[in-house]
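Q: Given only this backbone (75 positions), what sequence would you predict?
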C-alpha cells in the first residue's frame, strides 16, 4: 500500500520491508497489522502520528497486531 487511505472499520497490513507507507483512518474502529518489526514499538493514542523506523506513518488506528523478531518489545 502506498499513499494515504481513508476507509471505515478496516484492517490494513503493512510490512516494514517494502518502503515508506502512509496510513490514515479517519473514522470507525480500525486495526493495523504491522509485519517485520525489528525495533521497539510504542503505540500512541489513535489521534497522534506514529512514525516507524522506515519512515512509515500511522494515524487514527485504534487496534494493532504486531509481528516481528523475538526480541521486539511492545509497550
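A: Predicted residues:
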Amino acid at each position: 500500500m502506498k499513499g494515504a487511505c481513508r476507509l471505515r472499520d478496516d484492517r490494513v497490513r503493512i510490512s516494514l520491508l517494502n518502503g515508506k507507507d502512509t496510513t490514515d483512518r479517519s473514522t470507525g474502529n480500525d486495526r493495523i497489522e504491522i509485519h517485520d518489526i525489528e525495533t521497539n514499538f510504542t503505540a500512541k493514542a489513535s489521534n497522534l502520528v506514529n512514525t516507524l523506523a522506515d519512515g512509515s506513518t500511522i494515524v487514527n488506528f485504534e487496534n494493532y497486531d504486531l509481528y516481528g523478531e523475538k526480541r521486539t518489545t511492545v509497550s
